[in-house]
Every structure is written in C-alpha cells, then in structure tokens.
Design a protein that fits this description.
Blueprint: H1 2-15, H2 49-86
Length: 88
C-alpha cells in the first residue's frame, strides 16, 4: 500500500514539472514579402499620346493595387508578430 502511494505521488509530482518550450513566430513566406514588380516603360520613339496614356494608366493601376496588397500584408504580419511576442 505504501509502495503504491509512493509511486502515485511520484507520478503526480512529475506531471507538475514544467519544461520551458521555445516559441518562435513563423517567418513569412518569401512570396508574400516580395516587392512590387517594375512598372512598364514607354517604348523608345513612341510619340502617340494614346500609347503614353495607356502605359501611364496601366502603371498607375498596377502600382496602387500592389501597394495596397503589400502594405496590408506587412501591417497584418507585424501586428500578429507583436501580439505573439506580447504573450508570455
């Protein structure tokens, strides 16, 4: 009976021992941390205003779309990392 009590006590007490676990916030995938692609350039010798406006319009849209996606992703990732690091 005493032996059973000692074994049961040892089992219960070993369950209370805490082992520190190293936590690390996962790194962001490289695909999501890439910068926006280069904007299109006007071909040499182009003198038509319609072609210039087409390139300008495409660049403007592409830039703002990429900027919004990139900025929002980076902001979300940094907030999540800050929350993760604040939890102990």
């Amino acid at each position: 009976m005493k032996a059973l009590l000692i074994v049961a006590s040892a089992v219960v007490l070993t369950g209370c021992i805490s082992v520190p676990v190293k936590r690390s916030f996962p790194e962001a995938p490289k695909e999501l941390m890439t910068q926006c692609p280069e904007l299109a350039k006007l071909q040499d010798g182009t003198t038509q205003i319609s072609e210039m406006l087409k390139v300008i319009t495409e660049n403007y849209g592409q830039y703002h779309e990429c900027k919004i996606k990139s900025d929002q992703w980076i902001q979300w990732y940094n907030q999540q990392k800050k929350i993760f690091d604040s939890v102990k």
